[in-house]
Design goal:
heterodimer, A: alpha/beta, 7-stranded mixed β-sheet, 36% helix, B: 508 residues, alpha+beta, rod-shaped
Chain lengths: 252, 508
């Protein structure tokens, strides 16, 4: 059996030192993360290191600490479901970065996380983690494959990722409630927290149904990008189900 | 307190820097546009160029007066003493008012220029002696520079004494006899009262003219005697013609160099040296240079004429007539002697004519100087000089200098050593000197060259700041937590803000 790095911090340190990636295929999954583990390529790891994943690039930085505080806030709440729904008023507000960093923050606190990419039109995980396989979330939503077949483990972390393999023309598959419920049930059963990376409200207005089944609903805005009117519309669409608002790129 | 203030300033500067960096698509064109706009405005804005020069009064000339009023009036005295001739010369030389001058109102143009040029005495601790500042404003940089330079040069340039013309200067060596004491005495008594009362160098010049006139008259007198002697000799030669040829030896001309020719050559060398020195300071169009060139040309002409005249007598003398007493040989000798005599007569006549012309010029200059001295003695010298100048087409001092190409060895002469209300200067020999050459400044000062570039950048930066502020104000996007909080529904909490993390944009 090929070994993982001994600890997550060692993995971060190794990544920061730009050493050769040591992620390997585990022979047995972690107990909290059943299902197939899929290796993401070293190139994808390098990409992630350059992205805004602060737990890899700057784990002691201000941004990482903010994510830790947010994770603590979320963990301190009493939620009917441990399902975090993350959306934004418009594309490009930083949903993917927030999802991954929040998952890493939760993982750092010992929580296992199932990170599901549900943005079928503009999937991003394949650029971050690499293409998982021929089948992705879209195949699971079509009922072609089981959820565990599209899930891969993110290294030694307690994070499992289900990403989209092939972009779709629309997000209509999210309306197939049965398959979506199967995917969500898989995450809920096997992981402590499920993070749903949804399309923006502008891209998928029928997000209210998903929000009604979620725990904390987080709306992401991005400084100097998200328009006030778009934010008002998104806030009105979510209504009372909106629990948190996060502002990205608040440099000054 | 100060640290907080410094922090506020640093934070504001950082905010503005980030704002501009964030809005660079707007601020960069505005920065360039603002700079171009300022440069265009600087090019199109009506500007005035102010030329200023400092002329120093020589302290050894008793310019410093203990009476404050006298000090203040020294500059004005210089202005009045030099007013009309100098302004008129500047107007003519620089062609400042061509229409006015074409109408024959040169004096009006000169007066207008005089009213535009400021000549003030200033206190400058850097200089030990009083300083006169010459200022002139014009819409053209070149005009301001030229007028200021011309006025300063005219103030600092000594009035050149007029000496004998080259032809005249040569003549005394051959023909001039010593001056008679009575003649010298008469000249001095005619000139000295003016010199004493006016106390200016105009009087000194007039005195010099008188002395030169005396020399010229004496030279004419001596030349006339020589001419008469030659004519008598010629007549005697003609009377002896029918008689048998006497045993007369042919007149042997001196074999050594002609002293006239040598003097002319020396004069020409000095003039060429002076011309070379003047060319270092002025262009070829400067009147002094033109005059010096004319003078050198005249000298060369005279030298050529004298050389031609000397060449024929210097030819080998014909062989002596044969002792056999051949009549034809005696006739040839007689003809040669007559030719030599005629040449000497022509030379003497030419010198006589030159002397008379030089004397006429000298009289004209002396008359002009006398009129100027008389004008300077009136209550309002400038007005009197202006009226005199307007009435008579007399030449100005620079014009006189230009008209006389025989100027040589300029001696420093002060144009105005005595203010109207001050005592006559006992030592008017010192001159004014330019302490600081013409300096051109631009009004408005913001369009001056060094400041213009700085203000161009500042103007562009201000435009960039304004554009950034306007863009920020009109930006409909969320920029801070404070803008976000009022929009939150009651059920929502602000989870936090994530500082900007530099990361690559995930490709599509």
């Amino acid at each position: 059996m090929k070994s993982f790095p001994n600890s997550q911090s060692q993995a971060f340190a190794a990544a920061k030192a730009k050493a050769a990636p040591q992620w390997t295929v585990p022979e047995s999954r972690p107990s909290a993360a059943p299902g197939p583990a899929i290796l993401h390529s070293p190139a994808a790891l390098n990409t992630s290191r350059k992205d805004g994943f602060v737990f890899i690039s700057d784990p002691r930085g201000k941004a990482a600490n903010r994510y830790r505080a947010m994770a603590a806030t979320i963990l301190s709440g009493a939620w009917p479901r441990k399902r975090i729904l993350i959306t934004s008023p418009a594309p490009g507000d930083g949903k993917t970065m927030t999802c991954v960093n929040l998952a890493l923050a939760l993982s750092e606190r010992g929580q296992s996380v199932f990170l599901a990419e549900l943005n079928l039109v503009r999937p991003r995980y394949r650029f971050v983690f690499g293409s998982p396989s021929a089948a992705g979330v879209e195949a699971a939503l079509k009922g072609q494959v089981a959820p565990q077949d599209i899930t891969f483990q993110l290294g030694a972390t307690r994070i499992a990722v289900a990403s989209v393999a092939t972009p779709m023309a629309s997000n209509e598959l999210l309306g197939k409630q049965t398959n979506l419920d199967a995917l969500l049930a898989y995450g809920q059963i096997n992981y402590q927290w499920t993070i749903l990376d949804l399309p923006s409200i502008g891209e998928y207005p029928a997000i209210d149904d998903l929000a009604s089944q979620a725990g904390p609903v987080v709306l992401i805005a991005r400084s100097r990008k998200t328009k006030l009117d778009a934010f008002r519309r998104a806030s009105a669409a979510l209504g009372a189900r909106l629990n948190y608002v996060l502002l990205n790129d608040a440099a000054w | 307190m100060y640290s907080e203030l410094a922090m506020l300033i640093v934070r504001a500067a950082k905010d503005w820097f980030l704002l501009i960096a964030q809005r660079w698509r707007v601020t960069l064109p505005c920065l360039l546009g603002g700079a171009v706009l300022y440069l265009g405005m600087a090019a199109l804005w009506p500007k005035q160029y102010i030329g200023a020069a400092l002329v120093e009064l020589n302290p050894s000339n008793n310019w410093q007066s203990d009476v404050a009023g006298q000090r203040a009036s020294e500059a004005e005295a210089i202005r009045r003493a030099t007013a009309i001739p100098m302004w008129a010369a500047v107007v003519k030389r620089l062609d400042l008012s061509p229409e006015t001058v074409a109408d024959g109102r040169l004096a009006d143009a000169a007066e207008s220029l005089a009213s535009q040029v400021s000549i003030q005495q200033i206190d400058d601790a850097k200089h030990g002696s009083p300083i006169i500042r010459v200022r002139y404003a014009a819409s053209s940089r070149e005009q301001a520079l030229q007028v200021t330079r011309a006025v300063a040069d005219n103030l600092a340039k000594p009035l050149l004494p007029i000496t004998l013309a080259p032809t005249v200067a040569v003549a005394p060596t051959a023909f001039v006899a010593p001056l008679s004491p009575n003649r010298v005495k008469n000249i001095e008594t005619r000139s000295l009262p003016h010199a004493q009362t006016a106390g200016t160098d105009l009087a000194r010049q007039l005195q010099a003219r008188g002395e030169e006139a005396a020399k010229l008259e004496a030279a004419i007198h001596e030349n006339s005697a020589q001419l008469n002697a030659l004519q008598q000799q010629q007549q005697a030669q003609m009377d002896r013609k029918p008689a048998p040829a006497p045993e007369q030896e042919p007149r042997v001309l001196p074999s050594k160099a002609d002293p006239q020719l040598e003097s002319l050559r020396q004069q020409l060398a000095r003039d060429q040296q002076t011309l070379a020195e003047l060319r270092k300071r002025y262009t070829d169009d400067y009147p002094d240079i033109v005059a010096a060139k004319d003078k050198a040309q005249d000298l060369q002409t005279d030298i050529g004429r004298l050389e031609a005249a000397n060449a024929r007598p210097a030819q080998p003398q014909p062989a002596a007539p044969p002792p056999s007493g051949d009549e034809s040989a005696r006739q040839r000798i007689t003809q040669q002697l007559n030719q030599q005599l005629n040449q000497q007569l022509n030379q003497a006549q030419s010198a006589q004519d030159d002397l008379r012309r030089a004397l006429e010029r000298n009289h004209a200059q002396a008359a002009h100087l006398q009129s100027e001295i008389a004008a300077s003695k009136t209550i309002d010298p400038a007005t009197a000089a202006l009226a005199k100048y307007s009435d008579t087409p007399a030449k100005t001092q620079p014009d006189l200098i230009e008209a006389n190409p025989e100027i040589d060895n300029p001696a420093p002469v002060n144009p105005s050593t005595t203010p109207p209300n001050a005592a006559p200067s006992p030592s008017p020999s010192s001159s004014l000197s330019i302490a600081e050459g013409p300096v051109i400044s631009v009004s408005p000062a913001c369009f001056a060259a060094p400041l213009s570039w700085l203000l161009t950048f500042v103007f562009g930066a201000l435009a960039a700041f304004a554009a950034a502020w306007l863009a920020e104000r009109r930006d409909p996007s969320i920029r801070s937590e404070h803008m976000l909080r009022p929009l939150l529904p009651n059920s929502a909490l602000f989870l936090g803000s994530i500082p900007r993390v530099r990361h690559e944009v995930i490709p599509e």
